[in-house]
Amino acid sequence: MKRKRKICFVITSQIHYGRSKLILLELKKRPDVDLQIVVAASALLDTYGSVLEDLERDGFTINNRIIMTLEGGNTVAMAKTTGVGIMEFTTAFDNLQPDVVVLRADRYEVIAAAIAAAYLNISVAHIEGGDVTGTIDESVRHAITKLSHIHFPTNVAARQRIIRMGEHPKYVFNVGSADVEFVARNRFRVSEKLINYLGVGDVIDIHKPFLVVMQHPVTSEVGQNRKHINETLHAIHELGIPTIWFWPNVDAGTDEISKGIRSFREEENPHHMRFLKYLPPEQFIGLLKRSTCLVGNSSSGIKECSYLGVPAVNIGTRQHGRLKARNVVDVGYVKAAIKRAIKKQVAHGPYRRSTLYYRKNTSETIARILTRVALYSQKKFID
Amino acid sequence: MKRKRKICFVITSQIHYGRSKLILLELKKRPDVDLQIVVAASALLDTYGSVLEDLERDGFTINNRIIMTLEGGNTVAMAKTTGVGIMEFTTAFDNLQPDVVVLRADRYEVIAAAIAAAYLNISVAHIEGGDVTGTIDESVRHAITKLSHIHFPTNVAARQRIIRMGEHPKYVFNVGSADVEFVARNRFRVSEKLINYLGVGDVIDIHKPFLVVMQHPVTSEVGQNRKHINETLHAIHELGIPTIWFWPNVDAGTDEISKGIRSFREEENPHHMRFLKYLPPEQFIGLLKRSTCLVGNSSSGIKECSYLGVPAVNIGTRQHGRLKARNVVDVGYVKAAIKRAIKKQVAHGPYRRSTLYYRKNTSETIARILTRVALYSQKKFID
Amino acid sequence: MKRKRKICFVITSQIHYGRSKLILLELKKRPDVDLQIVVAASALLDTYGSVLEDLERDGFTINNRIIMTLEGGNTVAMAKTTGVGIMEFTTAFDNLQPDVVVLRADRYEVIAAAIAAAYLNISVAHIEGGDVTGTIDESVRHAITKLSHIHFPTNVAARQRIIRMGEHPKYVFNVGSADVEFVARNRFRVSEKLINYLGVGDVIDIHKPFLVVMQHPVTSEVGQNRKHINETLHAIHELGIPTIWFWPNVDAGTDEISKGIRSFREEENPHHMRFLKYLPPEQFIGLLKRSTCLVGNSSSGIKECSYLGVPAVNIGTRQHGRLKARNVVDVGYVKAAIKRAIKKQVAHGPYRRSTLYYRKNTSETIARILTRVALYSQKKFID
Amino acid sequence: MKRKRKICFVITSQIHYGRSKLILLELKKRPDVDLQIVVAASALLDTYGSVLEDLERDGFTINNRIIMTLEGGNTVAMAKTTGVGIMEFTTAFDNLQPDVVVLRADRYEVIAAAIAAAYLNISVAHIEGGDVTGTIDESVRHAITKLSHIHFPTNVAARQRIIRMGEHPKYVFNVGSADVEFVARNRFRVSEKLINYLGVGDVIDIHKPFLVVMQHPVTSEVGQNRKHINETLHAIHELGIPTIWFWPNVDAGTDEISKGIRSFREEENPHHMRFLKYLPPEQFIGLLKRSTCLVGNSSSGIKECSYLGVPAVNIGTRQHGRLKARNVVDVGYVKAAIKRAIKKQVAHGPYRRSTLYYRKNTSETIARILTRVALYSQKKFID
């Protein structure tokens, strides 16, 4: 009998799990795959939702749990977390001996895993390479590309960039976005009860219009994140539209944003806002679908919302350069501009579906390629 | 008065120091520069020569010493050393607060420093990017490019590749090779006494023809390095030409090579070979100049020797894809082929000087650019 | 001229600075001392107060800053922080080359520094060894004693225990508590304005009776800390006495306590409580002096308050076995018992000064011994 | 059915495995035990013998392999290895969730595991605590005792010391030495063929008188180890008795000793010495039994040899204070004294068996206690 291919999937954040779930299910179905799962970093921080429980409920076995995140919400903590992560992932991969390690996106935990695997001569498959954005993610994403062997960009432009960077075209697959496929493949509902059970703040009636806000720190603007979040907080406050607000990711600047939110709540005691840390992925998409407008700097506004037709107001530099459909309005960190853009989007209402990031069967395709593609270890710049 | 620019130079190996010495001297001369020096990794392993003493003798002050290398001579050790390195460099840079960190080449210690600096929003200047070679260095070199802000490739082709990878052309300077400038600028002599004082083995008369061998491990061929070194050892043994042999770098596979050499010495008790660990840079170049042929897989055969016109026999995949002048003959890991190539090169004798890697005033140009160029932190892929 | 003795003081928390300030001032005064200061761990976490600013304002130079704390508020994070800490302190001490490293108490950052110094053959001076308490601190404190060379216990019983553990009596000095000396030596005032400017919650009138609460997590009771803090929260809430509440230390269980406090505030919206993260040491003592009773499990209730005569209610196991004066009433994690004990202490009012932990000139004595004592490195169990 | 107790055995050196093998076999036999094995540090360095193969051949399953040793053979490397080790062991224990972690002796890898387990609230069982010796091991051994919950000293005096240090007598079991039981329980033979197949140097006829030398670095004498080994090398050289010499442990100073040996071989080309890195434990005991005298500073001279009656010459401070039987002669680092002592021991011949370190059924007793003793986590100094 042929040896099963050992495919190791690394999950480092709770949203990461939601966005990767279909791929994991496809891999688990395949008889020729021995699926390994490593859960690490903020996916294990309780504050950031219970990915372990979600995975177990969905029938997955976790091979290794790795706590590795340094506290501080600053750039030093991000860098050192990368260092700890390399050591930890190296031991994990050395013990699991996977044939391929599958990574996604551009955070520091991800480059840690990429370096560990690359030095161990294990093939690295990278989902979502080739995009252009702001922050340090822009550097790190392309560095991961140069350490990876199999590429799954989500759009044509990204594929072109990866090839320009010297990767072999036959290993660069534009499969569309697994996040968007996740949105497309399901009829998600959201539970008003759950929303108002979780988190803190006012009760939100999700049968009436409401906003969702997701504004993460910008690591290259450390020291200014608090000022920036204040613009958004006061814009939303003054508009008075009911709002579900998600706490930021762990990144340099997280503490600035968290403090901004906490002080704002103490001072303004706002009566139409609810603050959540985590929703299971299906619930989150269900919530997005019902929302009037997504505000902030999450890629969800650009990817998931483009397919759902949900209007998005994209604030600041974090998504700078990212390929966008018509549903997105870009604004700077200016209260008045944010208010104006939200009003405009509320007035506009839903957009037509965009398939900019969508291709059929993304996850199945990824799973099939991961299983069948000829693996290699030594890379070579293709001139 | 204008604030001096704080330029932090990272030295991670003894050969690294020799190759960077002119740049360091240029930086030290400049009144507008506050030079910081961090010495780390194998530059601090006694086995690998005494860089600290050389630096002090040359009048430099060392700001930070960082011991960080894991033992094992395997890929796990390389990966974990990277992890330790990131933590260590982060603390060092966080305390030193440089404006620019200057790195060279493509080893694991170097990507560690690049990640630390990049996350701290410090500009990274990278010397020798854009080249194509074998081993994991090929991936790591380009990943470092994507984390760097100022690029000093050594040749036109490398500059083109860096630009293709999305770096801004105005920050990519083809300045030639500092290694080759070091060779060109001096009239180095080598002391026969020193050669025969250092190391172990037979006495070598450097006034007669002799070979120099430098064969480092190939990390992507772990498990085969011993077999490969044996081919070279026996080729040299059978040729019977006096030979000065340098021990390998610390990399995955080092132990395979060291063991190969040790067993060979035990079994064959060879009477025309001397084994050295380190020579001060000037002595090393002096030795190269006198040598009949350089054998192995060091980049010295391709860079320094191209300028010196010293024939080189390049073995195996480590320099695969590297731009080469006429002085280089490529061979596989096959004793007979190695012997044949050496004989051919010995018969040919010295080549004409090549300026493939040479440009005037490399170090001064690098120092000037480092001091004057506008620094930036947020990167953006240039389509 | 005689070489100055290089004495390296390690500060790892903000309260640690307050408690060590007099010693630092004494060391700084001495002409025969080259004082080195390393600030690390939670002393650098912004949430935990600005030790750097305090140090600079007090005229100290900081030699090294080390960010090292893992996030998670769990036992894994504590253990890994110790690991990171050893690496970091080793590099710091290797670069600073101190003759003695001075450590205080029993936290994980401290054992990290002790191991780093001990392996580097540097003498370790340890303040506050020999005490008996609960939590993992109990094990760690004695392990640090066995790695240390010069001991400064704060009381006779502690000195006896250190000697029993095999330390040489002539290196075990009962100097009294520097914390208590700090209290004794000054006439601290507290600014009502500052108290009500910092933190969140209600305005507290410090001219009327008020409580201070400091309840830290108990690492060996992880999973129960939230339940335990809830008992205290509701006891205080039901008593209705104005209260200044300090957020807990970073330790396994911190998140349980923080969440407990946050949920309590959301649900109960308490109108007589204010929550602070940090007060400069002088202000803190000024506040303690005015307080009616200290509640929780901080050693301040046992040490500083014994001298001040402030009544203390000590909850749970954290200070189990610690030598106590009459001002302390011990209770379990039971709301009714906590209420009863507070009422009793409020009714009793101030106690007479106890000198259980007080000796004259503690800091000066420590500084003098550190400077003059013969240093040694090789330890030997004294039977 | 009752849950099996999860007992995690940590192996960090090859000699460690030999000395622990009987305990592992006893644990594996028990139906109420779920045995977990973690192999780490120098047990994984190829240079130091193939413990993995031995374990697998003996039918054990390895749960986790951890490469963690820093290169350098200096005190910085030892300290940082401890740091890396804590991180690694924490992840391993967090994933394995053992009820007890079993550790042995006093090296830096061992205190790393002790700290990891103690912070995770896992009970630590410690074999060989309470002894007195030289080097940093003396501090570390007792620090481990203070972090441990169940103690297995090898002799009465050690048990008394552990109790004096505040450990509860009912958890301190004098079970004798498992090393000595290993010696006592078997009729080991050594293969002359294997001895002369492994290692380098001259062929040794083990049917004639021969010495065994094991001299490890003394970490607190870094910088002097080379001088010290030279005394022994020349003593042995001048005596001219056939000698089997074992390479030193990885510790600060290892490189000094290795270099000393290598230079000696280059210069003296000695004709009656063979140098080995590793022998399987049974072979090693077989060799010891046949040897005329053990020379150096290994505890084998004091423990195993006391039972075997093999004369031992113990050099220097490493075993300073260790309980010794009559078979041991102590000398300083002086060539003449070493020669004199060896001659005296050779003249004396075998000693009578000592049972100083021997008790019947050590391993079975340890296994039974580990399985049945009530576990606890919170420690308390017993006054």
Topology:
Four copies of one chain form a homotetramer.
Chain A: E1 5-11, H1 14-29, E2 33-40, H2 51-57, E3 64-66, H3 75-96, E4 100-104, H4 108-119, E5 123-127, H5 137-147, E6 150-152, H6 156-164, H7 178-184, H8 192-197, E7 200-201, E8 211-214, H9 225-239, E9 243-246, H10 254-268, E10 273-276, H11 281-290, E11 293-296, H12 304-308, E12 312-315, E13 328-331, H13 335-348, H14 362-372
Parallel strand pairs in A: 1-2, 1-4, 2-3, 4-5, 5-6, 8-9, 8-11, 9-10, 11-12, 12-13
Antiparallel strand pairs in A: 7-10
What does this structure look like?
4 copies of one chain form a homotetramer. By secondary structure, chain A is of the alpha/beta class. Chain A has 2 domains: 5-176 and 359-372, Rossmann fold, CATH 3.40.50; 192-348, Glycogen Phosphorylase B (Rossmann fold), CATH 3.40.50.2000. Chain A contains 14 helices and 13 strands. In chain A, the strands form 2 sheets. In chain A, strands 7-10-9-8-11-12-13 form a 7-stranded mixed β-sheet. Chain A is globular, with a radius of gyration of 20 Å. The two termini of chain A are 40 Å apart. Chains A and B meet through helix 3, helix 4 and helix 5 of A and helix 3, helix 4 and helix 5 of B. Chains A, B, C, D: This is UDP-N-acetyl-D-glucosamine 2-epimerase, UDP-hydrolysing. Chains A, B, C, D: It comes from Candidatus Falkowbacteria bacterium RIFOXYA2_FULL_47_9. Chains A, B, C, D: Residues 26-370 form the UDP-N-acetylglucosamine 2-epimerase domain. Chains A, B, C, D: InterPro entries: UDP-GlcNAc_Epase, UDP_GlcNAc_Epimerase_2_dom, WecB-like. Chains A, B, C, D: GO terms for molecular function: hydrolase activity, hydrolyzing O-glycosyl compounds.
